[in-house]
Amino acid sequence: MNLNQIRQDTKGLSDNKIFLNNAGSSLMPKVVVESMVDYFHQEEQFGGYEVANRTATLLEEFYEETAKLINCKLSNIAFATSATDAYTKALSSIVFKEGDVIITTVDDYISNQITFISLQKKLNIKVIRTKNLSDNELDLEDLENLIKKHNPKLIAVTHIPTNSGLIQNVEGVGKICRQYDVLYLVDACQSVGQMVVDVEKIDCDFLTATGRKFMRGPRGTGFLYVSDRVLEQNYAPLLLDMRGANWTEYDDYELFKTAKRFEHWEISYGSLLGFMEAVKYANNIGLDNIENYNKNLSGKLRENLKNSGFNVWDWGNKLSSIVTFCEPNGELENIQKVLKENNIFFSVTYKNSALIDFTNKNVNGIVRLSPHYFNTTEEIETVSEILKNSLK
Ligand SMILES: Cc1ncc(COP(=O)(O)O)c(C=O)c1O
């Protein structure tokens, strides 16, 4: 990994800020921004349809690069405008009936939980959450028992929650889902881009991701992976448009074969192109390199914070590049003040975004630092030292 080159490619670092909010919205490499600016200039000259036609081959590379990123075929990839867009389209393709069961975890993302509760209220389905093991990972034995007891329609697991460093054992869940033939949806919004994510190993039916976080793409982008298994069974979004099907009869249509049937016809091709460049950029560095590097940085940061006396809230067997903490008395105010004063970028998560996890941990909120491969060990040491001094 050529860190100097990577930092030169990241114009946002030129004013000496320390950027540690990659789990929020990261800094785009300049090639991503330049590709979009150039595309929009072309649209200014020729109009969107003409430019999309002229650029068709390049735009298709989005599917190739994304398929390479998560180890699948390009026919399994759909562009999405956010992780939530991908998630809700996947969910909408499952026909839920009264009494159906969704099994999820206590650590799944706030919007997923709200969507499940909405389905529970509107369609009378049942939402059940697995227990956690003592190390905070979801309990696979409990999951298996719940499957046997409730015969669920769907298992939904967030790979890395927004509010803690936990990495769930999504491969372990995948094996159980296959054994019992249950649909399996993985929210990989925080994992894609920061570590190797391999859909063949996870063996899921749907996987969702966003562009702007660890992928370093533009806002308004994301993708959905759809397995062959599900495509062959004609799963498609509930509210399909002409991107998804061919209108063959007055009252009938024929679904298109690939995961593109989960897209809408109208999208921002300039943003898709920018996202393609971001995926290509990550692929060129190599996700295994990124994962190893990130593990080192976040491990070091966590250790420093603990040694300085902060309460670090990342519980799990395997931890990610999301580091969450507060002062020993639970306070967040002073940490935020000091970070802002020192031009260090971070984010804060409050209890309503992680209701069950933070209730269990008995915290009202946490500060989140999320290093990525363009950060240096020196930056981690600087931030650790500044925070350590803030406690005195
Ligand atoms: C774990 C997780 N899932 C889903 C999302 C939603 O992503 P988007 O805002 O792109 O829909 C987020 C955003 O923070 C997230 O952290």
Automatic annotation (TrEMBL):
PROSITE patterns listed in its UniProt record: AA_TRANSFER_CLASS_5
Top-level taxon in the UniProt lineage: Bacteria
A Pfam entry, by short name: Aminotran_5
Protein source organism: Chryseobacterium glaciei
Domain Aminotransferase class V: start-end pairs: 18-382
Name this protein carries in UniProt: Capreomycin acetyltransferase
Family the UniProt entry places it in: Belongs to the class-V pyridoxal-phosphate-dependent aminotransferase family.
Keyword Membrane carried by entry: no
Record key words, sorted: Pyridoxal phosphate, Transferase
Names of required cofactors: pyridoxal 5'-phosphate
GO MF terms held by the record: transferase activity
